[in-house]
Design brief:
By secondary structure, the chain is α/β, with parallel strands linked by helices. The chain is built from 13 helices and 19 strands.
Length: about 425
C-alpha cells in the first residue's frame, strides 16, 4: 500500500475529479499525504484551458516527475505529446477514465506506464470521495458539452455531453449533506446544456435539489448563454428557492456579435443582456459573473470597443478576463494572430474597468445586515457567502460551516468586509 499525493488545478469539475480520485485511492487501501515530499507516487489533475495554465502544468509535472507520476485531467487528453515530451514515464488518466484510477496507480508503482484516456461508461455520481473542503460538496451533474467553440480545448479533453440522471444527483447531494456539507456546487463543463441528452434540463434539476429538506445552500455553476433561450424563464423561477444563491456565471466572451460568430459561440450579445435583465428584475440583489476573452484573432479595434461598452452596460460583479492564447488542436489556433503587445494593451483597459466596477458594486453592500455561511479559510481570515454569493471576510473568530448574522462595514475590489452584528 502506497502513500499518494494528489493535487488539482483549473475548474471546479477538476477539483471534484481530484476528490473522487482521492476517494478511490483510500478505498483501495492506499494513504493520502499532504505533501509530495512524503509520497511514493504523485498525481496531478491538470487544466489546459489557457497557455499560461498549460505552462504552469508543464512546470508542475517537471517538479513531480522524480517519483512515480500520474498525469490526470485535461492536458494528457488534449495534448498527449506535450506530456510525453516532459515525462515519458508518467502514466496518464483522462477526465472520463476515473474507473481505471487504481489500475493506473498499481501499474505505475510497479514501474509500468499505464495510459487510460478512453472514455468509460462510469458515472461520476456516487463515487467515493475525500473532500478538499469539509463544508462544500462539489457534485458533477454532467461531463462534456455540445458546443464547438473555435478557441476552446475543453471539448477535446472532455468530449460530448453526458448528463447524469436527476435521481442519482439528488441522492449524491443527500449524501453530501448527511456528511456535513452546508454548500452544494452543481458543476460540469457547461451547466447550460445539462439534460438535453436525457430529455430534461437545468431548471428541473435545480428545483429537485432545492426540495431536499435539510438546511443547505446551492451554487449553480457556469452555464453558456447559447442554451439560455430554451431554459431562461424556468431557470430564473428555479432561483426563487431561498436555498439557491442568487448568482449567475454566464460567459459572454465578447461584446461583438461578429467575434461571437467567429468563436462559434452560438449566442448573441442580446441573449446575455436578456438573461441578466430577467435575473435583476426578479431579484433586487443578484451577483453576475462573466468571462471575457481579449485579442481573439478576428477581434478588430471596433469589436474590442463593443466589449468595453457591454461591460460598462451590464456592470458584472466578477469578470474572468483572459488574453487570447492559441491552444493546440483548436480551429482559431490556425488563424493569423493579433500582436501580443496589442492584446496586452486591450487587456489592461478591461482590467482597470472591471476593478472600478467591482469596487463600486461591492461598496453598495456597506450597511447591509444578514446571514452569511462561512465556507472557506484563507490567509486573510475566514470567508463566507451571503445569499447573493458575495465574498464576505470577517476578523471575528468563526468556525468554518457556521452561519452568523453579519453587518458589512467596508468593501474592496474583490470582497466585502463584515463583523458579527450585535
Amino acid at each position: 500500500m502506497a502513500k499518494i499525493f494528489v493535487e488539482a488545478y483549473g475548474c471546479s469539475a477538476n477539483f471534484a475529479d481530484s476528490e473522487m480520485i482521492s476517494g478511490l485511492i483510500v478505498n483501495g487501501g492506499h494513504t493520502l499525504v499532504k505533501d509530495s515530499s512524503e509520497s511514493d507516487l504523485n498525481i496531478v489533475v491538470t487544466c489546459s484551458v489557457k497557455d499560461s495554465t498549460a505552462n504552469k502544468m508543464i512546470h508542475r509535472i517537471k517538479s513531480l516527475r522524480s517519483k512515480p507520476l500520474v498525469v490526470a485531467g485535461c492536458l494528457p487528453k488534449a495534448e498527449i505529446r506535450t506530456v510525453e515530451k516532459i515525462s515519458e514515464k508518467a502514466s496518464l488518466l483522462g477526465p472520463n477514465s476515473l474507473g481505471k484510477t487504481l489500475q493506473v496507480i498499481d501499474s505505475t508503482l510497479k514501474g509500468i506506464r499505464y495510459v487510460a484516456l478512453e472514455d468509460s461508461d462510469l458515472s461520476k455520481v456516487g463515487l467515493p470521495k475525500v473532500r478538499l473542503n469539509p463544508v462544500v460538496g462539489i457534485v458533477e451533474i454532467a461531463s462534456g458539452c455540445i458546443s464547438e467553440c473555435t478557441f476552446c480545448q475543453t471539448k477535446l479533453s472532455k468530449g460530448d455531453l453526458k448528463s447524469y440522471r436527476i435521481g442519482d444527483i439528488v441522492r449524491q447531494v443527500e449524501t453530501e449533506i448527511s456528511e456535513g456539507c452546508k454548500e452544494i456546487w452543481l458543476t460540469s463543463t457547461d451547466n447550460g446544456c445539462y439534460g438535453f441528452d436525457i430529455n430534461t434540463d437545468l431548471p428541473t434539476l435545480v428545483k429537485a435539489v432545492s426540495k431536499i429538506p435539510q438546511d443547505f445552500m446551492i451554487r449553480v455553476g457556469m452555464m453558456n448563454p447559447m442554451y439560455m433561450p430554451r431554459i431562461k424563464d424556468e431557470l430564473i423561477k428555479s432561483y426563487d428557492s431561498d436555498k439557491v444563491y442568487k448568482f449567475l456565471h454566464i460567459p459572454v466572451q465578447s461584446g461583438s456579435d461578429k467575434v461571437l460568430n467567429d468563436m462559434k459561440r452560438g449566442h448573441t450579445v442580446k441573449t446575455v443582456k436578456e438573461i441578466i435583465k430577467k435575473a435583476k428584475e426578479r431579484f433586487t440583489d443578484f451577483t453576475i459573473s462573466t468571462d471575457v476573452i481579449v485579442g481573439f484573432p478576428s477581434e478588430t479595434r471596433e469589436d474590442f470597443e463593443k466589449t468595453v461598452s457591454l461591460i460598462n452596460e451590464i456592470r458584472p460583479d466578477i469578470v474572468n478576463l483572459s488574453k487570447y492564447s492559441a491552444r493546440p488542436g483548436t480551429e482559431a489556433a490556425e488563424w493569423d494572430q493579433i500582436e501580443a503587445s496589442e492584446v496586452k494593451k486591450r487587456s489592461k483597459v478591461i482590467f482597470d474597468m472591471i476593478n472600478e466596477i467591482s469596487l463600486e458594486n461591492n461598496q453598495k453592500w456597506i450597511g447591509w445586515k444578514g446571514k452569511v455561511l462561512f465556507d472557506e479559510e484563507t490567509n486573510e481570515g475566514i470567508k463566507g457567502r451571503n445569499f447573493a454569493y458575495k465574498s464576505v471576510f470577517v476578523k471575528d473568530k468563526i468556525k468554518i460551516g457556521q452561519i452568523h448574522t453579519i453587518e458589512i462595514v467596508d468593501a474592496s475590489t474583490h470582497s466585502i468586509l463584515g463583523k458579527i452584528a450585535s
